[in-house]
Amino acid sequence: RKKCLLCNNLLMIVAASIMGCSKIAQSFEMILIGRFMCGISLCVPLHHQYVGEISPRKLRGFANSTSSFFWSLGKAVGQISGQRELLGSQSLWPVLMASCGLPALVQLVTLPFFPESPPYLLMHKGDQEGCKKAIRQLWGEGHHQAEIDDIMKEKATMKNTKILSVLELMKDQAFRWQLYMIVILTATVQLCGINAV
């Protein structure tokens, strides 16, 4: 999880750099390439997953909702700073376009000091000692055996569950309508004009 987030932040910094240099290069194509790179990044689902997994169970819902709050706050700050009086002027809009790289840079610098998520360490890597160390680093000293037991139960449950590949998911008729709905809703959000506004 953590490595994926770090790689994703590198992608965002590259995208921000490309968009920020578009005026100097006099290339609107660079804006399109940078926005495409921002669009294919996995920021939102990865953040939700990582924050949810590193949070104690009693704070997990709160932690996931704060991710959405800060995502919405970021959009609002972007819209406010895009006003003509701030960064929306003809000379400063490249700075506005490149500003999406700032949170990625902050996370790229700070994330290495955070541990990997305990469920990932235990369920996918089988590293029980690493899981206990991560839990102590995240939640402090104390007795956390109940949380470790919950992760072990989830791991046992997942052994009996077949994980489908993307192609298998698309071919399985039991998930066809759910897949259609997700695609339609996602496409509608992208095409409704909210991003342009």
TrEMBL record:
Keywords: Membrane, Signal, Transmembrane, Transmembrane helix. This is GTR5 protein. It is a multi-pass membrane protein. GO terms for biological process: D-glucose import; dehydroascorbic acid transport. InterPro entries: GLUT, MFS_dom, MFS_sugar_transport-like, MFS_trans_sf. It comes from the Eukaryota. It is found in: Membrane. One of its GO terms (molecular function) is D-glucose transmembrane transporter activity.
